[in-house]
C-alpha cells in the first residue's frame, strides 16, 4: 500500500486549494508517522478539503498514532460530491490533557453536499461522525451513510479493565447539528460511554453552539440499523 505521511511542523497531511476537483485516492495509506513527536504531537487534520468537489477516498487507510493528537481523520468544508468508500479510519482522538478538541473520523461544518460514506470502519474518540458544530452559511445535504462500522475501542475507557492509560475526550458515535436529507442505514455502532458528555451514542438535532449561523436545519432523515 502506497503511503502519504506528514512532515514536522505541519497541522495536516493532505490539504487542498480552492476549486480542486475530480481526484480519486485508491488504496492509499494516509498516516501520522510520528514526525510531530512529543506528548501532544500529531495533526489537527489528517485530510482537510476546502472548497473542493468530486473527491473520492476508495479503499484507503487513514490513521493517527496510538496516543497522539490526531484530531480529524477526513474533514471537508464547503465541498460537494465527496465520497469515502471501503476505507479504514483509525486512531483519531484528542487528549483531555491538551486542547480537548472534538475529534472525528469524518466531519464537515458546512457545505452543499452530496456526501457518500459507505462500507467503512470509522474509529474516533470524540464523535466518530460529526456534521455541523460551527459557523456555517449552508446546510450539508444529501448524505448517504450506509454499512459502516462505527467503533470506539474499550482500551480508551478509563473504567474498563483493558484501559491503556491515555485518556481521550469521548462524546458520541454519530452527531448531526446542521444537515438535511440524510439516509443512515445498515450500520453498526460499537461502544460509547459517559465521559465529556452523558454517553448518548447518536444525536440528531439542530444546534447552534458558537458564532452566528444564517441557516440551521435538521430534517428529512431515514434511520435504520
Radius of gyration: 16 Å
Counted up, domains total 1
Q: Please tally the β strands and state the result.
A: 21
Given the helix and strand composition, which structural class is it?
A: mainly beta
Q: Label the overall shape.
A: globular
> What is the oligomer described by this structure?
single chain
Strand content: over 45%
Number of helices: 0
**C-alpha end-to-end distance:** 32 Å
Task: Please give the order of strands in the largest beta sheet.
Answer: 1-4-7-10-13-16-19
Layout: helices, strands, pairs:
Elements: E1 2-5, E2 12-14, E3 21-26, E4 28-31, E5 45-50, E6 53-58, E7 61-63, E8 72-77, E9 80-85, E10 88-92, E11 104-108, E12 115-118, E13 121-124, E14 127-131, E15 140-146, E16 149-151, E17 172-176, E18 179-185, E19 188-190, E20 202-204, E21 218-224
Parallel strand pairs: 1-4, 2-5, 3-6, 4-7, 5-8, 6-9, 7-10, 8-11, 9-12, 10-13, 11-14, 12-15, 13-16, 14-17, 15-18, 16-19, 17-20, 18-21
Amino acid at each position: 500500500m502506497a503511503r502519504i505521511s506528514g512532515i514536522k511542523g505541519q497541522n495536516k497531511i493532505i490539504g487542498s486549494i480552492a476549486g480542486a476537483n475530480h481526484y480519486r485516492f485508491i488504496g492509499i495509506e494516509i498516516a501520522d508517522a510520528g514526525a510531530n513527536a512529543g506528548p501532544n504531537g500529531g495533526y489537527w487534520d489528517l485530510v482537510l478539503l476546502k472548497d473542493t468537489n468530486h473527491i473520492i477516498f476508495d479503499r484507503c487507510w487513514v490513521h493517527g498514532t496510538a496516543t497522539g493528537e490526531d484530531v480529524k481523520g477526513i474533514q471537508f468544508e464547503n465541498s460537494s460530491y465527496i465520497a469515502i468508500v471501503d476505507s479504514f479510519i483509525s486512531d483519531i482522538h484528542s487528549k483531555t490533557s491538551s486542547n480537548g478538541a472534538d475529534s472525528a473520523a469524518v466531519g464537515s461544518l458546512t457545505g452543499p453536499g452530496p456526501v457518500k460514506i459507505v462500507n467503512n470502519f470509522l474509529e474516533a474518540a470524540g464523535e466518530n461522525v460529526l456534521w455541523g458544530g460551527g459557523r456555517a452559511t449552508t446546510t450539508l445535504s444529501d448524505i448517504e451513510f450506509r454499512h459502516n462500522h462505527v467503533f470506539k475501542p474499550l482500551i480508551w475507557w478509563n473504567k474498563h479493565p483493558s484501559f491503556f492509560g491515555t485518556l481521550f475526550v469521548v462524546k458520541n458515535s454519530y452527531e448531526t447539528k446542521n444537515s438535511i436529507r440524510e439516509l443512515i442505514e445498515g450500520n453498526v455502532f460499537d461502544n460509547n460511554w459517559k465521559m465529556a458528555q452523558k454517553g448518548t451514542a447518536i444525536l440528531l438535532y439542530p444546534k447552534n453552539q458558537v458564532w452566528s449561523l444564517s441557516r440551521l436545519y435538521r430534517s428529512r432523515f431515514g434511520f435504520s440499523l
